Amino acid sequence: MDLQQRINAFVELGKFLSQFTTTKFQEKASVLHNPLFFDGFKHQIKLAQEHNAWFTPDNLIFAFNGWTNLLTESNLKAWLTKYDFNGLQPKQVAIIMAGNIPLVGFHDFLSVLISGHYVVVKQSSNDKHLLPFLAKYLETVAPQFKGKISFTTEKLNEFDAIIATGSNNTARYFEYYFKNKPSIIRRNRNSVAVLTGAESQEDLEALSEDIFRYYGLGCRNVSKLLVPENYDFQKFFQAMYAWHPIIHDNKYANNYDYNKAVYLMSEFDMLENGFLMIKEDTSYASPIATVFYEYYKNKTALKERLETDKDLIQCVVANGLIPHEIPFGQTQNPQLWDYADNVDTLAFLLNLKA
User: Fold this and answer.
1) In the 3-class helix/strand/coil scheme, how is the chain assigned residue by residue?
2) What SUPFAM superfamilies does its record include (predicted)?
3) 131-149 pLDDT, tens digit each
4) Residue 323 domain-assigned?
5) Is 114 part of any domain?
């Protein structure tokens, strides 16, 4: 397959996913192979929801919509244009995927295949229904992909390079176990929002999307606020209110009740509004239904702090503070060239040696 053929296959996959971006799935006559795949994917969506209660219809639709928007010919070419694909010797690249949000490992899957390598995927048990089905669709659209995509639940043995995502503890294991292979090993990261007190109501309402989307389970979710001294949280809580129905989701409510009880029994100071708690804490990773906050004294010290802790931070949501900041409300809408941990996955794949 040449690069254009690989692009064309993923464009067709984007068109297929476009049928699942609203609550009422809409079959489109122009989409290839629908008689084989449309009803089957509806069934896989149902299985994914039954297997993982965090994969609600709303969050699945949001994920499908994101990939539908990204998998266009113009987006793919804009992403790929700066890379040199000539002379690549195909390798077997393994991917160990997380399972915290729907299709969280899809960008790695896309990167391996679009670069021309073979892929072997070890999925999280929390997200095992969607990607194998989409891979079958790709193989039907582009039969040249057959034999280049495999999935395993067993120990990884035959591979030339690996991309692995996990916790800080599993990352240490990965680094030891895969020390003799070219690798990208991802650890825990969290995202922060920098507030000044001058944010509009619209800014803060947009921030609520960064906090609550996927129940805050993603590394791009804002789990920490950095605020000036004497910051008044009243406007912040007002802006969060649109998400109050989230407390009716049982898993979220159970986490809220548990964490609230822990804070109260430990006599921690915290503020809450019935569905979200905020607590002053130096950590970046906050529990579900909680956002941590810290005060900063001035922007110079704040920028130094962000630079010092950059390896702990996935996204910084801010307005005019630093280069590469994310606008309010956009953390869960990355572009294809917005690489996790700022590690260029495609450059890594294209530089694998014979």
Assistant:
1) CCHHHHHHHHHHHHHHHHHHCCCCCCCCCCCCCHHHHHHHHHHHHHHHHHHCCCCCHHHHHHHHHHHHHHCCHHHHHHHHCCCCCCCCCCCEEEEECCCCCCCCCHHHHHHHHHHCCEEEEECCCCCCCHHHHHHHHHHHHCHHHCCCEEECCCCCCCCCEEEEECCHHHHHHHHHHCCCCCEEEECCCEEEEECCCCCCHHHHHHHHHHHHHHHHCCCCCEEEEEEECCCCCHHHHHHHHHHHHHHHCHHHHHHHHHHHHHHHHCCCCEEECCCCEEEECCCCCCCCCEEEEEEECCHHHHHHHHHHCHHHEEEEECCCCCCCCECCCCCCCCCCCCCHHHCCHHHHHHCCCC
2) ALDH-like
3) 999 999 999 999 999 999 9
4) no
5) yes
